[in-house]
Amino acid sequence: MTQGNADLTMNDLPVFSAELHPYRSLGRNGHRIFFLIAGALSFAHMAVFMISGAWPVVLFFGLDFLALFGAFWLNNRAAKAREIVSLSRTSISIRKISPSGRETAHEFNPFWARFLVSRKAKIGITAMHVRGSGRQTDVGTFLPPDDRERFASAFSGALARVKRGY
Description:
This protein is of the alpha+beta class and 166 residues long. It is built from four helices and seven strands, in the order αβααββββββα. The strands form two sheets. The protein has a four-stranded antiparallel sheet, with helices on one face. A three-stranded antiparallel sheet has the order 5-6-7, with helices on one face.
């Protein structure tokens, strides 16, 4: 390997790398327990109304349970989204993977790119964007406020180090 190739390889090593995932408070077991309890309660109420002769109400309990199940299914599907952010001396790479698995990639030159953070006084960070060469992409829109603060601090510090040349 020549000296030029060694420098190129060193410049391509990531200085910063992060994989961002949406936060979800319930895991797989939590969902099972929740739906077992919700299903048992719905079934008990359905039985009470069926015995008392109000059978049309039973249909509404079934629809409510299906709507609850659908909402949790959509929420779990959205949790499959992720973003992979990588920063080297030569590029900023942001790969966004949707819940369906569709991937979009954004590349920026770190020396021309700007990391923009929008804040509100009582809320904290409301948006983060990387802008450069007439293009812009948002980063970490699904993160909770504390994680946005940590990511913004770490990424902006790494970007500043790259621009200073270490």
